[in-house]
Amino acid sequence: MRRYTAAGLLVAGMGAQATAGATGSGSLALASDYVWRGSSQTGGDPAVQAGVRLSARNGLYASVWGSNVAFTPDVGARSEFDAALGWSGDLTPAWGLDGSVVRYVYPATGRALDWTELSATATFRQRAWLQLAHSRDALAGGDAGTYAQIGGRLTLGADTRLEAVYGRYWLASAQARNYQHVQVSLIRAMAEHWELRVTGHATDGAARTLFPGNAGGRLELALQASF
C-alpha cells in the first residue's frame, strides 16, 4: 500500500484479533451515474455497485466496495474496488467517529491508477458530519492531496430525508487547481431495506478543467438495498 503499508498491516493485525463475534452487512445499488467528489466516474453512464463489511464488537471493521467505471480518456479501467480497514464507534452519546485507510484499486490498469487515502469522519447526532481525508498520492497523480467535506441531514417525514454536502479538494499545484463541489440529495425509503435517492451535483470551473466532460452540473438517480 505504498507509504501506508505499515499502517495497513497494523490495522489488519488488530482486526484479525477481533473477529470473534463479528457481524456482516452489505449493500447493492443501481445508479444512473457514479459521481465521486463532483466528477462522474462512468462518463455519465449507469453503474452497478455492491459492497460488504465485516464489523467486530470493538468497532474495528474491514470492507470492500466495487463499481464499474469508464474514464475519459480511456485508460483501460473497467472496474473499481475500494478496500478499507478502520474503526467506527461512539465517542459520546452525541458524537461518533469513523477512521479508516482506503485503497482504491483498478484491476485492469496494471496498478497504474491504484492509490491509498487516510480518512476520518466525525458525526454529530446522525444529523451532521465532517470528513477529512489525505493522500500522498492523490488520484494516483504522484502528489499530495487533502479533501474536506461537511454535510447535514434533515428529516422530512417518517420515510423521507434531505441531505446536503459541500466538499473542497486541495491538490498540489503541479497536478491541478483546488476545486469545490456541492450536492443535494432527496432520499425516500421505498420498502424495508430499500431506498431511492435523487441527487443534484454541481462543481466549480476548476473541477470542470480537471475532469472535462465529467464535472459540472448533473443529476444522479440511485436505487439502493442494504442487508
List keywords for this structure.
227 residues; mainly beta; Porin; two-stranded antiparallel sheet; 2 helices; 14 strands; disordered N terminus
Broad shape: globular
Number of helices: 2
User: Quick check: average pLDDT?
Assistant: 91
In the predicted model, the low-confidence regions spanning at least 5 consecutive residues are 1-15
**Broad structural category:** mainly beta
- According to CATH, what is the topology? Porin
How many β-strand stretches?
14
User: Domains counted in the coordinates: how many?
Assistant: 1
Q: Using the CA coordinates, give the radius of gyration.
A: 18 Å
- H/E element string? HEEEEEEEEEEEEEHE
How far is the first residue's CA from the last residue's CA? 30 Å
CATH architecture field: Beta Barrel
**Main beta-sheet annotation:** 12 strands, antiparallel, barrel
CATH class: Mainly Beta
Numbering strands along the chain, what is their spatial order in the largest sheet? 1-4-5-6-7-8-9-10-11-12-13-14
What is the CATH homologous superfamily assignment? Answer: monomeric porin ompg
Helix content: under 10%
Strand composition percent: over 45%
3D structure, described in words:
- By secondary structure, the chain is mainly beta.
- It has helices at residues 5-16, 205-210, and strands at 23-31, 35-36, 39-40, 47-55, 60-68, 79-90, 95-105, 115-124, 128-135, 145-155, 160-171, 179-191, 194-203, 218-226.
- It has a single domain, classed as monomeric porin ompg (Porin).
- It is built from 2 helices and 14 strands.
- The strands form 2 sheets. The protein has a 12-stranded antiparallel β-barrel with strand order 1-4-5-6-7-8-9-10-11-12-13-14. Strands 2-3 form a two-stranded antiparallel ribbon.
- The chain starts with a helix and ends with a strand.
